[in-house]
Amino acid sequence: MRALLLAAALFAAAPALAQAPISSAVFTDATRTPTVRTIIDGATWRCDGGTCTATGGANQPATRACRRLVARFGSVSAFNYKGVALTAQQLAACNA
């Protein structure tokens, strides 16, 4: 009986453990960010002012994901894709 309860508890906790990291971006011009959810390369972006977060997304380098977002909504001051934060040098290249 204990084994069954333990298995049930582990099964219930599995979805929380398997969630993908959330991506985020802070835009320098909040007026260009979308007001509705937007899907770019499989990532579903939702924005509140100049800060956007996303779940999902294609397996690609964070630098490429940043360039794709900047092409649509303008420059960013911070960017994190699936747990990988860009450095100041990478952000400068992304915004170029």
What are the key terms here?
alpha+beta; 96 residues; globular; 38% helix
Give an account of the 3D structure.
The chain has three helices and six strands, in the order αββββαββα. By secondary structure, the protein is an alpha+beta fold.
Write the SSE topology.
Elements lengths: L1 H16 L5 E5 L10 E3 L2 E6 L2 E6 L5 H12 L2 E6 L2 E2 L2 H8 L1
Antiparallel strand pairs: 1-4, 1-5, 2-3, 3-4, 5-6
In which order are the strands of the major sheet placed? 2-3-4-1-5-6
Give the helix tally. Answer: 3
Low-confidence spans? 3-17
Strand content: 25-35%
Spatial extent as radius of gyration: 17 Å
Concise synopsis of the structure shown:
The protein is an alpha+beta fold. Helix content is 38%, strand content 29%.
